[in-house]
Amino acid sequence: MSIRRILTVDNAADLAVLKQVSAPVEGGVTDALRALMDDMLETMYAAPGIGLAAVQVGDPRQIIVMDLGDRAGAEEGDETGQRNPRYIINPEILWASDEMASYEEGCLSVPEVFDDVERPAQVKIRYLNYAGDTVEQEADGLFAVCIQHEMDHLKGVLFIDHLSRLKRERAIKSVKKAARAA
Ligand code: NI
Fold first, then answer.
1. Quick check: is 1 in a domain?
2. FRET partner for 81 with CA separation of 20 to 30 A, picked from 15, 17, 37, 161?
3. Which of 104, 136, 150, 169 does the annotation list as catalytic?
4. Tens digits of residue pLDDT in 43-64
């Protein structure tokens, strides 16, 4: 397994890739795809973050990894709990609630920027998992936020695209400034 470089919005070439629309994975879930997802997960844990789309490591295909820390049997905030990775390939939203919820989002491609985004509070999704099986699942709470944020990445949309132009420009400026200082 290896850690990949995460593309960020302060770099024009990276931003052009992040704006691409991801293609569906063809031919099912192969060992090569699982190896990519293992790398993505390691990259996400190292960052650290709770969700990552393949386009964020420069591979614009419909692949998402996630770990919300909702470990079965572990207390909230239990650092000794086991990891609970989720692997989501070719996701579709089957249903979204009329009820909306707001959450302060961040993104590994927009480091150190956080802002409120409003999205449907619950969604029902269908996707392929690590084994290549089709899964239908209802999501609410943080899972609903995260899956919609990551599925935006597959459409070339970043969470800052949901903000006002002023806030979006300010966000990119602050990432550029931080990159120069580093
Ligand atoms: Ni993101």
1. no
2. 37
3. 150
4. 999 999 999 999 999 999 999 9
